[in-house]
Amino acid sequence: LNTATPYVALAGPIGVGKGRLAEELGRRIPAMLIREQVADERLETFQADPSGNAWAMEIEFLEARAGLLKADSPRWLEPGRVWVSDFWFNQCLAYAGVWLPPEGQEAFRRRWEEARPAVREPKLTVVIDGPIRRLAEHGGPEGRLTVEVRRRIRQAILEQAGRPGQGPVLRVTMERPEEALEEVLAAVEAMR
Predict the structure, then answer these.
(1) What is the pLDDT of residues 111-129, one digit of tens each?
(2) Which helix or strand (DSSP H or E) is residue 174 part of?
(3) Which of 103-112, 122-131, 158-167 has the highest mean pLDDT?
(4) How far apart are CA 27 and CA 50, in angstroms?
(5) Which of 13, 32, 186, 187 could, after both became Cys, cross-link 154 (CB 3.0–4.6 A)?
(6) In angstroms, rounded to a whole number, what is the distance separating the alpha carbons of residues 181 and 24?
(7) What is the reported pTM?
(8) Half-sphere exposure of residue 140, counting CA atoms within 13 Å on the CB side?
(9) Which pLDDT does position 141 carry in this prediction?
(10) SS3 for 148?
(11) What are 7's strand-pairing partners?
(12) CA distance to 1, 25, 54, 135, 159, per residue, from 59 (Å)
């Protein structure tokens, strides 16, 4: 742990507050943010026909995340930096498990395993949780997701984070965002 890159990955269901927490960490640490950029139009296309667009969307996310987290990127060599991403590479598997049929999940897992060795692993993964009722209030293109789909996504991420070999995982809830922020700040300070 004391030789790993000080990189913190935030994970959680859609609408839980990963982006807000990343921004606040960026201000308070200060941290360099690695943001996942997804156009609202892409999400709207996906939401219009999830079963028809799931494979293309999940592959797009996989490739984008792998590109942002390339282990051989010179960014990781900058001394004294703490990096925070508003996503977790391994959450790809959780989302694929929700959207793709079993045969698609197997093909996706093979693609994920091919990409994984070239990706920087986080020193700490923070899984942000929240009540489904609050997640269902999230607007934007994701606002069309049913409560059942949101429940399945939440459960898949929690299961993925609980698998052996994930490294240190801190679970926080956004019921009280300031308390969650303080908990993550304390964990980041302890890992430096």
Answers:
(1) 999 999 999 999 999 999 8
(2) none
(3) 103-112
(4) 35
(5) 13
(6) 8
(7) 0.89
(8) 12
(9) 47
(10) helix
(11) 83
(12) 31, 29, 8, 24, 21
